[in-house]
Amino acid sequence: MRHARSSYRPVLAATVALAVAGGGVLTTALAAHAAAGCRAVYQVTSQWPGGFGATVDVTNLGDPLTGWRLTWSFGAGQTVGQLWNGVITQTGSQVTVTNAGWNGGLGSGGTASVGFTGAWTGANPAPSDFALNGVPCTGNTPSTPPAGALDQVGTVGRVRAAGNAVQYTWPGTYFEGRFRGTGVGLVLNDANNDYVVQVDGVTVATLVTPGQQTYWVRNLAAGDHTVRLAKRTESPYAAGEFGGLVADTGGAILAKATPRARQMEFIGDSWTAGYGDMSTTRDCTGNGGVTRNSNADVTFGALTAQGLNADYQINAWSGLGMVRNYNGGGTDNFRTYYDTDLQAVYNSQTWPVPSTWRPQVVVIGLGINDFSTALNAGERWTTIDQLAADYRTAYAAFLDKLRARYGSDTFIVLTYPDLSYQTTAFADSVQQLVAARTSAGDTRVSALYYDNNALGLDLLGCDWHPSQHDHRILADTLTQHLAGLPLTW
Known about the structure:
This protein has 489 residues and is α+β, with helices and mostly antiparallel strands. It has helices spanning 149-152, 270-273, 289-292, 300-307, 334-337, 368-371, 384-406, 425-439, 452-455, 468-483, and strands at 16-21, 38-48, 51-60, 69-73, 79-84, 86-91, 94-99, 111-119, 131-132, 135-136, 160-162, 165-168, 174-180, 184-190, 194-199, 202-208, 211-217, 224-231, 240-247, 252-254, 262-268, 310-316, 361-365, 411-417, 445-450. This is CBM2 domain-containing protein.
């Protein structure tokens, strides 16, 4: 609700991750040492028309080396320009990098890293034939890369493929997979968001802006396990990236589970996104700020869906409204971005709604930002009645869009909390919208009023937002409302 917005849209670098590993017998080595194999992680860290930046991290899985030579070949005519942390030669597509004078020692399990800039035309695929001192990095080791994140994990979130990885921005996006063994790695590249990691339904880690890494969960009991990664925070101007799962030694990634039959979509603002919901004090300046205290995975939407064993999307953006944003800020509104895959990222596109996404329930919570603050001089509405009229017109059109997308069988719930301290226009408008739809024969649109006082909401989240305590109450209230509808799922 109280959420500053910026018109700055940073350029998000396209990133491709490839991890390869191998085993074998070394026949030639720079320092006459044997080596059992190697692992190489290749990352395109930035890309622009005609050029790119990349890094390669190579790990020695054999005996210690006192000198090393890393080779690979490009498959689309790419060329290397400047390189650091090594000495490079390139002949045609073949690239050879030898150690610099100061980093030739590479112990067993040690890693050497090189970075470079390059040029490309047409395409920029990742190499796949890395070798260390002549030993191919192509075997089956703990860091064998995913063939593709979506081949391993299930998600109904709005994601976009980026090489083997997927990118996303909407809060609460989650991925679920299965593995056998005592550990699993999660491949991440995200300097903006926080995540929760769960194994077999138990939270095992909270990752704060993990950056580019493979996060490992180890020392589990041997057997089959489930793993879940969920994005806690909002990032409408920068995409997170998930590269899939990596099996630990002796383990394996299993086929992903069948998608759930039940589907739910939650559309809204800061209440829906989980703005500051982990906090127990309204002033979050001294306890980590709003972002560190936000967790979309424990919002009323997530709790409701999980309690009903439903897959779900949380499509929410703090501070935005149906026609008017918080305190009249900005010119865009929620409807500007609802159809996008990566929200306001520079290369965001219209999300191609898959045929597999047909939620039986859509819950909408838009209007707090429209009505919670007084109109300011210079806004296009001079009275609340004018604002309310525009709000109802836009909302009706939005409902028509959802009907066209999901069909007449979907149940749509319009939620609204108590704003009577400011105006009754919000409540009146929602009730009028439901009445109009019902009189027109659309009986699967209903309204749910959250009476803050009657429900016992403490609003102890950041900036007077719902707390964890409140979200549990809201989830129970919504679940009871749904139980009164003729759902047949």
